[in-house]
Structure formats: structure tokens, C-alpha cells
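Agenda item 2: MF3 complex prediction
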Amino acid sequence: MPVSIKSQQEIEKMRVAGRLTSEVLDYITPFVKAGVTTNKLDQLCHDLIVNVQKAIPAPLNYAPSGHRPYPKSICTSINHQICHGVPSDKVLRNGDIVNLDITVIKDGYHGDSSRMFYIGEPSIQARRLCETTYQALWHGIRAVKPGAYLGDIGYAIQSFVEPMGYSVVREFCGHGIGQKFHEEPQVLHYGKARTGLKLEPGMTFTIEPMINAGKAGIKQLGDGWTIVTKDHSLSAQYEHTILVTDTGFEVLTVSDGCPLPTP
Ligand code: MF3
Ligand code: CO
Ligand code: CO
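Presented output:
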């Protein structure tokens, strides 16, 4: 399947889905604190998406080949969990860092975004990892324009984080997005400038670097979903859904509460 170019009507629907996705993250922010369970966060987000937004939480029962259906409506990945952490009765504690990854389907189109949250005061190391990962996402975003290459995005991210001693997770990547949750192309968070697919206006894809404080190696837990660092080092991730415009990029997963772009 080739990479789809979205029409103006499709882009408008992607803007709506993207805004709703970001608004879920805004809504849940005050609840993400010590003592809450990730199941409670899942339930609150699910209810907002279904009852208020009249939308669909894309993760619920999502079953790509080789996977059992995902059992929850959001992903909650804590500390050394890299991604796809499954909400549970586990209580968030002071000093934890947690990624909440939200994907909403509205009017047939997907928005996909994630942010890191601090529970109380994080360690200096944890804060630095999260801030660097956020900057890494923006280095990737700023590489997006017509005529640039997918490899430029990966290169921008990798060349920013590796000199700091961090590593880029290889097994998971950003992805085309639209009527499907995961479409072509794959957007690697490492690579060589001026290689790979050439970007064209109307392409929509996510950028979602997963950055480890230690080595890049990963392990999947017995639940069939949760991915953790093999060396148990901390991991962070931020994600936006991006449109390639005639002159550069537009971030589709925006809302009043979404963190500002880095300078
Ligand atoms: N939201 C994730 C992504 O950014 C995918 C989660 S798949 C799920 O691509 F089934 F775990 F929800
Ligand atoms: Co994604
Ligand atoms: Co996501």
C-alpha cells in the first residue's frame, strides 16, 4: 500500500481527531498524581472519549497480527516501561514518570499523541530524560517539510539524543495515520539524512521517539503488550500527529493545554 495523500476534507477531519486527542491529555492532567491507579486514568479517559467527545478509543480491542486484543482504552507506561503499558490497579507513586498515550477515532479518522507526566518530584535524571525526549520530538518535527526525507527526521532525533548518552528504541516507530491507526510509512527515530521516502504535502504521520536512559534493548512482558527496557533503565516518549504542509508542517494534536514547542 502506497503512502496516502489526504484531501482537504480528510485533513479537516484529522484536525478534529487530533484536537480531541490532545484535549484528552489536557483533561487527564490534574488526575495524574500520587495515589491514583492507571486503571482509574483509563476509565476517566474512556468515559470522556465515549460519552463527551462521542468518539472511539482506538486502543480498545486493537489487535494487530501477532497480538491479542489490547484490553484497555489508553496506554500507561511507567518508569522503565517504554510503551504499550497496560493500565492496571497499580498505584502511581511519588517520583514515578508515566507516559499516557491516547488515540481517538472521530468521524473515521485517528489522532494519536502522548506526553510524559511527573508524579510529585521526579529525580534530576528522570526530568532530564523527559525534557530531552520532548526536545527530540521537536527536532524531528522541525525536519518535516515537502522535499525533505523520512531519514532527516530520524537523523535529527538520533543525532540529538545519542551524544547525551541516551539511546533510541529501534523496534517501534512513528507511522502513517488516517482512516487506519497504523498506515504506511514507518517513521524511524534514527537514520541517515537524505534517505528514505520523500515527504509531500498531505502526508500525515506520527513522530513518537522512545528514548532510553541506558541501552536501547527491549523486552516484552508476559501480558503480550507492555514493552520495557532490557536493562531496566528509565524510558520516555512524546508523540504528535503531523501533517506535511506546502511550506513545512502542522501539528494536528494540539489543544489549549498542550505543552509549547521548544524554542
Ligand atoms: N498509540 C500507540 C502508537 O503510538 C499504539 C498503541 S497500540 C495499543 O502507535 F494497542 F497498545 F494501544
Ligand atoms: Co502512534
Ligand atoms: Co500513540
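Discussion summary: The CA atoms of residues 59 and 73 lie 5 Å apart.
Owner for follow-up: CH.
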